[in-house]
Amino acid sequence: MASKDKVAAAANQEVEVSLYEAQKKIYPRSVTGVFAKWRWFFVFATQLFFYGMPWLQWGDRQAMLFDLDTRRFYIFGLVLYPQDVIYLAGILIISAMLLFLFTAVAGRQWCGYTCPQTVYTEIYLWIERKFEGDRSARLRLDASPMSLNKFWRKTGKQLAWIAVGLWTGFTFVGYFTPIRELAMHVVGMSLGPWETFWICFYGFATYGNGGYMREQVCKYMCPYARFQSAMFDKDTLIVTYDAKRGEPRGARSKKADPRALGLGDCVNCTLCVQVCPTGIDIRNGLQYECISCAACIDVCDDVMDKVGYPRGLIRYSTERAMEEGWNRAQILQRVLRPRVLIYSAILAVVTIALLASLVMRTPFKVDIVRDRATLARIVEGGKIENVYRVQIMNATEHARQYTLSAEGLPGIEMVTDKQVTVDAAESLWVPVRLRVPYDAASPGSHEIRIGVSAPDGVVQEKSVFIVPR
Which residues does the UniProt record annotate as the domain 4Fe-4S ferredoxin-type (predicted)? Predict the structure, then answer.
């Protein structure tokens, strides 16, 4: 009876279960090898572009500048206005299709080599290693009590991290405010409130993501890891562990014959886990946290060299290739499959359309607004006059002269100046007065066309001419 009472009491007792797993800090070990060199190549390439481009001059201005105050985007010799948002849409579509195509073929190698989160994590890890040492040294330092040595290493690392973050924020703002002017404002302590906010905001984001959040961004915040499975198939290139060759894993002497011991080639050194920036064990199969950085491939190849086994226990391959034992040539034959061809065709069509549109683009834009204060009036000679405002936007780097014209009604004439000059990369509102004979049209609204011409093109915009009753 007593035992039954104990069971009933235990069943009624509330049990608290945590739904969240405590996250342990990951200490990625440094690694050298072919793929590590490629990662650093892309770190240098992307950051040379990002940090260097705002300082590049194109004539008398910054080569790449998104000037929000004047609502103009400058990309080398190209000047874009808000009305050119279609080009932004085209660029976004091309970027999306490139990502889909690359993912279908090569998996998440974008994440492993050129994603800003990966790039800044590499930079911040490099700074951390310079101050605190490699993985084992960092583990010992974090476990030790506070001392002068620990204090200066931690403080120096934080100051270097903050400096990189602020410089990154300054460079980012330099794409929207001319960076040379921005630098003078920083030196003169005369930054505006918005520039200050965005430098600090972007700097803090870089500092937090690269220094602390790291793999958490890839695992929990980045949506790419969540929908990549829709673009993966069995012929997508991924980082794979050859379980047929590696299992059963286990430690052994370098001189021992693994087959005699009943072991595979994996020596269970766990170095592939220690170098992983997201802390996964690739030997457990494909996982969404894997960013295809190939750090595990480099370190495993190094171990295989030391124990005298063939390289490639961990390698880039595909699920189908692993199942059927394909070689590299057979893997390449499966690259041009239906989904890859579809992505490539869409990408080619959008890219050609965008380039053709840019080539055929008229280097000026026109906008027409009727003067609502004066709809229509009768002037000298019994003629009917309507007043318009024509905006001409010069999208070139030099001043240009434009000729205005009108058509659409019998006897229509323009009584204002037909020749106007617009400065380089500027816009100008021009008042235009159009007149027609009193009996040229019946009372009501009539469609007309106002044209603006230059030596390299003509733009006509529709409007209406009001004939009063």
Answer: 257-285
